[in-house]
Amino acid sequence: MVMKRFIYIFFATLLAMMWLGINVYADEYDGLDFDYGSVLVQLKPQITDAVSMCSDPFDELNISDAKCIFGDDASSISLFSDKTEPIIYVLDLENPSRENVIDTIEKLKAMPNIEYAEPNYNVYEFSEPNDTYYQNGKQAVLDLIGAKKLWDFDIDCSDVTVGVMDSGIQTNHEDLIDNIWVNTGEIVGDGIDNDGNGYIDDIYGWNCGDSNGDVSYVSNHGVHVAGIVSAVTDNSKGVASVARNAKIASIKIFNSSGKSTLSYIIEGINYAKKNDINIINCSFGGAGWGSTSVSIVKSAIEAVPDIFFVIAAGNIATSTPQPDNDRTAVYPSQLTKDLDNVISVANTTSSDELSSTSHYGATSVDIAAPGTVIYSTIPTSSYGTMSGTSMATPMVASAVAVMRAVNPNISAKEIKETLCSSSDKLSALTGKVISGGRLNAYNAVKAIMPTATPTATPTVKPTATPTTVPTPTVTSSPTATPTVKPTATPTIVTTVTPSPTATPTTVPMPTVTSSPTATPTAAPTVTPMPTCFNEQ
């Protein structure tokens, strides 16, 4: 039975509109790939009109259900007052069809309190399965990005959580289980939202498609990506990762066919916001999004500036026939041009060449990372290779996790700029990506590490007017204490013989001969130089 109980706010003018019979099938939607069973709606900000509650207003507009996927749920407030963050809904249609989607959108656009009404565009994974099994050097690409040197820092990343927005993960995989994020405020299987975050039984993350806590994998893709982000490292099994013990939260947005929609992405962003997830890996995308759809997704990402989004640039096979994103925009990767908390990633090979299947963009793709024949985790507690910008993207996300561990307060803009400026510049990437470089995780982390300040050690040097070098106090008799004054040109000697009338010379380490009438009361000490951290 379709849920009908919904306190609607933004449909205050619905009853007036449903008699207009608007039925415009605009050419702007021809050839575009979107879901035929739902539409996206973003409300205008700061709507203060009082609203009323009506029962079942959606029947006449072919709407069976409405779900808030970003911002405050309309059912939790009585009116829109001074809300500034975007409020986005996905509306399910009673009779799914392409024509009904377009018809509903046109009617919604005519409503005064609707900012945007758009198709719920489909998005797809960016991967190229590869069955080649490498017995030796399966993860040699980690050396390219400086992982081995980075591990020497032994950085604890356990307080950093990366959201893997993908097809689900295997939470009990032998090389992932210890790094899986667990919502300790929730009780497994009791059907109650124990922690009050708006999600019931979200133990390991959230399934945005089915609106439940089942984040189990529906394909290898998400499991493989998760292992690149944060496989348990130094555990004598499986594979290693740059961020050796960062936590992985599953934000499941794909079904078994590798298909998702914009509404799932937006809901996933909202989940990350409510659960303090620091980074989101997005190994997916698509071309042909409408400008208003782009604005809806952009508004959601823009509303969470503390979450850093690492997004795949795209593969030729699964997005567009040509790979230049400057010519054909691929989203959400293209948002890097407008947002500091987005970075777009291309795919390079183990020989530091741009992959022949990778998208690129001199003004729209920021950086590249190894993504060809990458060995990582797959179901069930096994390992295998996959290729694509889907694999390059979590390489960068893993590096960002270490950066956030080193400096939790680092801004998204600084992360992005540091990743690009510290990358290894390659001729193959000149004119292909903004930075002209391939990820160097070691360089990026080292660039933001606090610089140690060594303790100053005084150096014993003769000067015309010494003030810091200790000198002995010499007593020549019970009643006479000579005043120690340096000579104009001091001479370094090894022994001082005290005299009641002589002016002692400044020396680094005087040796005083004891006598009944002359006893030195102080002896200078030499402080050893501090041991500095040397780059290995």
CATH topology name of the largest domain: Rossmann fold
CATH homologous superfamily of the largest domain? Peptidase S8/S53 domain
- Supply the number of helical segments: 10
Count of the domains:
2
Describe the secondary structure blueprint for this structure.
Layout: H1 14-17, E1 34-43, E2 63-70, E3 88-93, H2 98-109, E4 114-125, E5 128-129, H3 141-144, H4 147-151, E6 161-166, E7 205-207, H5 220-230, E8 247-252, E9 259-261, H6 262-274, E10 279-282, E11 284-287, H7 291-302, E12 308-312, E13 330-331, E14 342-348, E15 367-370, E16 374-378, E17 382-387, H8 389-406, H9 412-421, E18 424-425, E19 437-438, H10 441-448
Parallel strand pairs: 6-8, 6-10, 7-8, 10-12, 12-14, 14-15
Antiparallel strand pairs: 1-3, 1-4, 2-3, 4-9, 4-11, 5-17, 11-13, 16-17, 18-19
Characterise this structure:
The radius of gyration is 33 Å and the shape is globular. The chain folds into two domains: 14-121, Alpha-Beta Plaits (2-Layer Sandwich); 126-448, Rossmann fold (3-Layer(aba) Sandwich), CATH 3.40.50.200. It is of the alpha/beta class. Residues 1-25, 48-57, 74-81, 128-136 and 466-536 have low confidence and may be disordered. The chain is built from ten helices and 19 strands. The longest helix is centred in the C-terminal third of the chain and has 18 residues, at 389-406. It has helices at 14-17, 98-109, 141-144, 147-151, 220-230, 262-274, 291-302, 389-406, 412-421, 441-448; strands at residues 34-43, 63-70, 88-93, 114-125, 128-129, 161-166, 205-207, 247-252, 259-261, 279-282, 284-287, 308-312, 330-331, 342-348, 367-370, 374-378, 382-387, 424-425, 437-438.
